[in-house]
């Protein structure tokens, strides 16, 4: 098996560079183009704002405040102008709308003081100005609304649960080796923090383009890889790094894949870990992907946990390490057939007769058994 | 295009019913949708009686559920009318105390300095409530009733402020707005995939941020009457889009085609192209997931009525590979194109497959019979719970399960030379399968079928030529699973075996 591995590695290097669907860090290489219905992004303005990167977010934040201040400042100035306050600056008997507003700058300052509710007191609104009272009311209401919105956006942006995914790590390679006489595809996942991921569950999808019988070409078709959905094994208790294993059985997409075929195959496995951040209760999602060349046949993950004084010690230096083990290089299907044949010999002494025939099906096998009046052996492996 | 024509045709009929049945399609009355295309549900709750107090008890949800215009109106009303009422209380205090007549008397200490008429009282109130506090108008300590009102106003102001700001924020950050950037295709299509008839629709995510734990569900809304005579209006029934296997949990980054396989467990088991025109149902699709940024769950809905389900169409591809990323072209998102699809239902197919005669008769001229074979052979794989002996012998079963992959690969190699000529590729696998799927009923039929094989078109013979000259498989090859159990001397099964064992 080791010889086979060496023989095939030069071919592996010659494979053309394949475009990944999902990067190793979880970012997806998909761009949305030619979108005609852009009104949708505006209707969902909140998510649009929160999704922006930090530079744009801060720019929008600053702009929102600056624009409202300037707008109201201009209106206060306009009121002062229309009333004639600016012509009566030195007049003691004249009651202006707002005391001590004598130009655009002071109108702007008054607008800021009002909207941010500082209210120093040097510039005060008088009671001789009903228009001013209305404007004050309007500015107070609008100010609190804009404030609420901006502060909310900032808060949501800061506490985004998807940042938690930064401290969830996946192994660099996936491996295929034997576990309990079955071939399993495995990868490792770990949580770098001491706080837990509540309700963690693991999913995997196989991304492989296919063509149906009718000629329909489905690019990047997604099929589910079972990580224990029926038994509940996909629900993790993630405190120390876990090795997630997908048992390659007859329903798996890798049933017919041998080591030689793995070299030539072209697929991508996307792994998704979802769970709630313990502190905030918000669900986060961590993703990674493995290309066909990142799946190592016949390797096993190095152990990381050791028992120290009063606790278990995890060594993250060994997180990505694998070592080679003896693994048959045939596919899982061939392995199950070979194992069944091996089982048969335990119940049979006429093995020579069997070697001549082609083993082609359960019924053929059972037919022979009944023909020789022996009880059929328990068929544990599928044919 | 045909769907559009059909839709206009129906509308035309609705308007000109007195013209009579001038069109081939049956006259359908304009029907009321349960769910709109944008997900809004056409249900109004009436005659609640004494239950309206519940809405007041849950005031927060009631406020958040209101439309934006009502929310803003309540906001503004609270801040103006309530303020006017409260301000008048300050004015009443000033009036009772007799501050109003004092004006600018320096020696007199009013309750609130510089408040001597209603406008100034109102201004004082705003300044206090909005915590601006300019300082020109301020409360003095000579006024116990004023102090009490002042305390009350501060507390109430904070509470009302918090409530309204909270409502505003929740209303702005509603996760249901995320549903605006989740798109569903305009139509659903029915066509074949791997020999199985499937109902498909497309779903897309317009943003780069993900939907965590995205899950898709499908409900069929169709009124029916039970055998006991109970009429169930708008009865909801579940459509399986992968619930059992976990395939309904989506990884939604680029547009996905969701596929509902029509088999014996599906409510569309006896739906054919003809019956589609006369039926009346609605498929409601629900996509639920958590908004990545806020961690709140959102739900996007849409529905497909029977005139929005296109028989024999397929979605145009939207993904293309660019330099360093995949590009999605949303202008093609809703577009479909026609493909040849058999017009009858899956039930009729299965019934035809169970009859022995169609398998024996030569099907040279029969265009209809061919898709039959593809269905029957594949239908066996899907329904393992069916009794083995019911349709075809077990040999056939095993042959189709294992040999199908090799056959498919050969088909793919052949079909890749021809562009999407679905009709020809549909024929090819069928001919190969027909040979493989015929039970060894007698040499006459076998010879007939072999003759039929030789008559076939060029690429066909090329492929079968490849198959026939292949040596028997070695021990370590995955075996085709064809059992020549009882009859090793029969030449045809051996030949078939060799054909199917080709890699």
UniProtKB/TrEMBL annotation, chain A:
Domain Inward rectifier potassium channel C-terminal: from-to ranges: 168-335
Membrane topology annotation: Multi-pass membrane protein
Alphabetized UniProt keyword annotations: Ion channel, Ion transport, Membrane, Potassium, Potassium transport, Transmembrane, Transmembrane helix, Transport, Voltage-gated channel
Record has Transmembrane as a keyword: yes
Keyword Transmembrane helix tagged: yes
Residues in Potassium channel inwardly rectifying transmembrane domain copies: 22-161
Domain of life: Eukaryota
GO terms of molecular function: G-protein activated inward rectifier potassium channel activity
GO cellular component: monoatomic ion channel complex; plasma membrane
Membrane-spanning residues: 58-79, 136-156
Any one GO biological process: nervous system development
Reaction(s) the record says it catalyses: K(+)(in) = K(+)(out)
Pfam families: IRK, IRK_C
Family according to the record: Belongs to the inward rectifier-type potassium channel (TC 1.A.2.1) family. KCNJ9 subfamily.
Subunit structure: Associates with KCNJ3/GIRK1 to form a G-protein-activated heteromultimer pore-forming unit. Interacts (via PDZ-binding motif) with SNX27 (via PDZ domain); the interaction is required when endocytosed to prevent degradation in lysosomes and promote recycling to the plasma membrane.
Name under which the protein is recorded: G protein-activated inward rectifier potassium channel 3
Organism ancestry: Eukaryota, Metazoa, Chordata, Craniata, Vertebrata
TrEMBL record, chain B:
Residues spanning the membrane: 72-93, 147-170
Signal peptide: none
InterPro entries linked to this entry: Ig_E-set, IRK_C, K_chnl_inward-rec_Kir, K_chnl_inward-rec_Kir3.1, K_chnl_inward-rec_Kir_cyto, Kir_TM
Topology in membrane: Multi-pass membrane protein
GO cellular component term of the entry, any: monoatomic ion channel complex
Keywords: Ion channel, Ion transport, Membrane, Potassium, Potassium transport, Transmembrane, Transmembrane helix, Transport, Voltage-gated channel
A GO biological-process term: nervous system development
Catalysed reaction, written as an equation: K(+)(in) = K(+)(out)
Domain of life assignment: Eukaryota
Subcellular location, principal: membrane
MF-aspect GO terms: G-protein activated inward rectifier potassium channel activity
Entry keyword Transmembrane: yes
Annotated ranges, domain Inward rectifier potassium channel C-terminal: 182-353
Subcellular location: Membrane
Boundaries of every Potassium channel inwardly rectifying transmembrane domain copy: 35-175
Segments for region (Disordered): 347-407, 460-503
Similarity section: Belongs to the inward rectifier-type potassium channel (TC 1.A.2.1) family. KCNJ3 subfamily.
Protein name in UniProt: G protein-activated inward rectifier potassium channel 1
Organism of provenance: Paramormyrops kingsleyae
């Amino acid at each position: 098996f080791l010889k086979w591995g060496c023989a095939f590695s030069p071919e592996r290097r010659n494979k053309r560079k394949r475009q990944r669907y999902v990067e190793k860090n979880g970012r997806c290489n998909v761009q949305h183009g030619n979108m005609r219905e852009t009104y949708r992004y505006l209707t969902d303005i909140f998510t649009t704002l929160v999704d922006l990167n930090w530079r744009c977010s801060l720019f929008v934040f600053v702009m929102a405040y600056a624009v409202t201040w300037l707008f109201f400042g201009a209106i206060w100035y306009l009121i002062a102008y229309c009333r004639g306050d600016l012509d009566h600056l030195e007049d003691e008997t004249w009651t202006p709308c707002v005391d001590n507003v004598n130009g655009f700058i002071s109108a702007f300052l008054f607008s800021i003081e009002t909207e941010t509710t500082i209210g120093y007191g040097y510039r005060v609104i008088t009671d001789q100005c009903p228009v001013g009272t209305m404007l004050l009311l309007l500015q107070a209401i609008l100010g609190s609304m804009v404030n609420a919105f901006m502060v909310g956006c900032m808060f949501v942006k800061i506490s985004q649960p998807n940042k938690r995914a930064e401290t969830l790590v996946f192994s660099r390679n996936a491996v295929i080796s034997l576990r309990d006489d079955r071939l399993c595809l495995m990868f490792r996942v770990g949580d770098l923090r001491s706080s837990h991921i509540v309700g963690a569950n693991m999913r995997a999808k196989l991304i492989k383009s296919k063509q149906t019988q009718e000629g329909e070409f489905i690019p990047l078709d997604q099929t589910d890889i079972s990580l224990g959905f029926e038994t509940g094994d996909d629900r993790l208790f993630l405190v120390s790094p876990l090795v997630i294993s997908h048992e390659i059985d007859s329903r798996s997409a890798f049933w017919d894949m041998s080591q030689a075929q793995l070299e030539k195959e072209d697929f991508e496995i996307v792994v998704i870990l979802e769970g709630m951040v313990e502190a905030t209760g918000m669900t986060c999602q961590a993703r990674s992907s493995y290309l066909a060349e990142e799946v190592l046949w016949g390797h096993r993950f190095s152990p990381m946990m050791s028992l120290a004084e009063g606790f278990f010690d995890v060594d993250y230096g060994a997180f990505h390490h694998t070592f080679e083990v003896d693994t048959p290089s045939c596919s899982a299907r061939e392995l199950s057939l070979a194992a069944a044949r091996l089982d048969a010999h335990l119940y049979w002494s006429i093995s020579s007769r069997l070697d001549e025939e082609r083993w082609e099906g359960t019924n053929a096998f059972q037919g022979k058994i009944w023909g020789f009046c022996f009880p059929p052996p328990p068929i544990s492996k599928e044919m | 295009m045909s769907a559009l024509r059909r839709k206009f045709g129906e509308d035309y009929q609705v308007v000109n019913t007195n013209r009579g049945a001038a069109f081939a399609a049956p006259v359908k009355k304009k029907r009321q949708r349960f769910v709109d295309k944008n997900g809004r549900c056409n249900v109004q709750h009436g005659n609640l009686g004494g239950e309206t107090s519940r809405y007041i008890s849950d005031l927060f949800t009631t406020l958040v559920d209101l439309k934006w215009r009502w929310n803003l109106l309540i906001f503004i009303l609270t801040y103006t009318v309530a303020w006017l009422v409260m301000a008048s209380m300050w004015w009443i205090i000033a009036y009772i105390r007799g501050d109003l007549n004092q004006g600018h008397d320096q020696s007199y200490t009013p309750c609130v300095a510089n408040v001597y008429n209603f406008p100034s009282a109102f201004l004082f109130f705003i300044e206090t409530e909005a915590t601006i506090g300019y300082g020109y108008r301020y409360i003095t300590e000579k006024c116990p009733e004023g102090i009490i009102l002042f305390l009350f106003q501060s507390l109430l102001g904070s509470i009302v402020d918090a409530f309204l700001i909270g409502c505003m924020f929740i209303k702005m950050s509603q996760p249901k707005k995320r549903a605006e950037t989740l798109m569903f295709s305009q139509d659903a299509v029915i066509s074949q995939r791997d020999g199985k008839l499937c109902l498909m629709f497309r779903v897309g995510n317009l943003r780069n941020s993900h939907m965590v734990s995205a899950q898709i569900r499908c409900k069929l809304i169709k009124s029916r009457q039970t055998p006991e005579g109970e009429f169930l209006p708008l009865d909801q029934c579940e459509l399986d889009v992968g619930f059992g296997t976990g395939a309904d949990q989506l990884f939604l980054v680029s547009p996905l085609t969701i596929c509902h396989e029509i088999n014996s467990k599906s409510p569309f088991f006896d739906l054919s192209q003809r019956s589609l025109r006369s039926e009346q149902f609605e498929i409601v699709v629900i996509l639920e997931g958590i908004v990545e940024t806020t961690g709140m769950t959102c739900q996007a809905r849409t529905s497909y009525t029977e005139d929005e389900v296109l028989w024999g169409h397929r979605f145009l591809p939207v993904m293309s590979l660019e330099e360093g990323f995949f590009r999605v072209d949303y202008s093609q998102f809703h577009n479909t194109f026609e493909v040849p699809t058999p017009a009858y239902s899956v039930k009729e197919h299965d019934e035809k497959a169970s009859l022995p005669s169609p398998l024996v008769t030569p099907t040279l001229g029969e265009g209809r019979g061919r898709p039959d074979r593809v269905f029957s052979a594949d239908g066996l794989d899907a329904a393992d719970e069916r009794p083995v002996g019911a349709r075809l012998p077990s040999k056939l079963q095993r042959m189709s399960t294992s040999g199908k992959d090799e056959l498919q690969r050969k088909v793919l190699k052949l079909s890749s030379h021809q562009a999407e000529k679905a009709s020809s590729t549909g024929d090819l696998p069928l001919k190969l399968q027909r040979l493989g799927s015929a039970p060894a009923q007698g040499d006459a039929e076998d010879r007939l079928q072999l003759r039929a094989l030789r008559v076939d078109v060029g690429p066909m013979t090329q492929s079968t030529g490849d198959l026939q000259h292949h040596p028997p498989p070695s021990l370590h090859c995955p075996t085709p699973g064809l059992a020549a159990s009882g009859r090793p001397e029969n030449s045809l099964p051996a030949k078939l075996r060799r054909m199917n064992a080709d890699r």
